Amino acid sequence: QTKTGIALLYDEVSENAYDIRLKLTKEVLTIQKQDVVCVSGSDHSANHRTVTLRRQPVGGLGLSIKGGAEHKVPVVISKIFKDQAAEQTGMLFIGDAIIQVNGINVESATHEEVVHLLRNAGDEVTITVQYLREAPSFLKLPLGSPGPSSDHSSGTSSPLFDSGLHLNGNSTNTAPSSPSSPIANEPKYEKRWLDTLSVPLSMARISRYKTGTDKLRSNAFEVLALDGVSTGILQFYTAQESADWLRAMSTNISDLTLQNMKMANKCCSPSDQVVHMGWVNERLEGTDSSQLYKFKFLALKGSSFYIFSTPPVSTLDWVRAEKIYNLCEVLFKIHKLWLADDCWLQANLYLGIHQDFDLEDQRPYCFSVMVGHGKSHYFNVELGSELAVWEKSFQKAIFLEVQRTGSKTYMCSWQGDTLCFTVDFALGFTCFDSKTKNVLWRFKFSQLKGSSDDGKTRVKLLFQNLDTKQIETKELEFQDLTAVLHCIHSFIAAKVASVDPVFIDSQSIARKYMYSN
């Protein structure tokens, strides 16, 4: 199914926006711009067309113009009147920039100069035109075929004056002149939407933020292909349109990612399957207060959590990840920044309508992944639905890894002795001497009643003795305490999920939020 619609392409340098047409298929987003093409007759370049107009007693030249050098735009034809001189040529179109009038170059002329020239050019006026493909939206030119009835231009009237040349100019000849009509062998021209850029959506990414800032663009976003080709900034007339297009493109990108995952999984063993992958923004901690975000591609595959700067395309690419962590030793955490009490704000954030000033410098839809040695990565995604998928995927990938691994053993020490501490899916916790292998103590998961740590290496685990009901404290020292605590968390969560899967679902922050909306 193909989705099409009109949008604006915003140029950050000139600060102008141009009318474009978007065409979205399952695999490609195409940007089209209007142009005038030669459809029959001698194959002249449609770039420059020279047309002779015969001024009529009623209706004059039959066109209106807008723009001029004082507005930093060429003078363009803004209206063509039905059955009058300009329309009868079949060679002039709304959006044509006037380059010459009777051989005089007017490319850098003001509006008034061109009006004066056209009004005083006599009964036969020869103009050379070229279609202005990137007509700034402030000209408010209609997008349809010629004629005032097809005015699909955006919103309000243009700040620029429309000079009508359908009124009589200084005509010396009062007798009706023959109409300007196309001659049989003259080339025929048509205004058409032409493809100017196609962006493949496989592994593409979307950004709603101004580069390197926390500022959300208003009703606008950018799509970047895997090879870095950008659509430029796509601007929409309403928040609803922007949200619809954002969702449609995100859905297509997700579907293609799913296909890529299925293909990758055919080459991988059952224990090394991709559970989920996709683009996120990672917050880079700067030395100053400004926080920069950088695109990263995350993947949950087999026993590992991968962070890439570019997506893995071939099997060999998996070894060139920036970071690889064991899934049992990471902790996924959603930031509740966007879970405000105000339902209206929640709905606005979900739609991408960003009106709350308190949140202006903070991104919604954030999560962090805490890793070993107390470090963590802070990520942001574009949509609430993506956040829900990442939460679910991390749970699934971690549970699968815990069930596959069965147990994990860590070296530790206490009072000078080197010990081994094992977390086992079936048995719970076991501590034994690393040399003699003698078991010092063993407890089930259900016996763990609490823990405290010094934030560095030392942890106290509080277990309840099943016979005496007394709490027994076990102290241990680990080289990477964070990894061990995350591992304990992963095993307990997997144990709960295996006994009561509904409970884990009920704990999902993001999914609760999604359904409430």
Automatic annotation (TrEMBL):
Keyword Ribosomal protein: no
GO MF annotation list: actin binding; structural molecule activity
This protein's record includes keyword Methyltransferase: no
Residue ranges constituting the PDZ domain according to the UniProt record: 50-133
UniProt-annotated location(s): Cytoplasm, Cytoskeleton
Primary localisation category: cytoplasm
Pfam families attached to this UniProt entry: PDZ (PF00595), Syntrophin_4th (PF23012)
Region (Disordered): 143-186
GO CC terms: cytoskeleton; syntrophin complex
Comp. bias (Low complexity): 143-160
Entries under PROSITE patterns matching the protein: PDZ
SUPFAM superfamilies found in the cross-reference section: PDZ domain-like, PH domain-like
Domain of life: Eukaryota
Keyword annotations: Actin-binding, Cytoplasm, Cytoskeleton
Family that this chain belongs to: Belongs to the syntrophin family.
Protein name per its UniProtKB record: SNTG2 protein
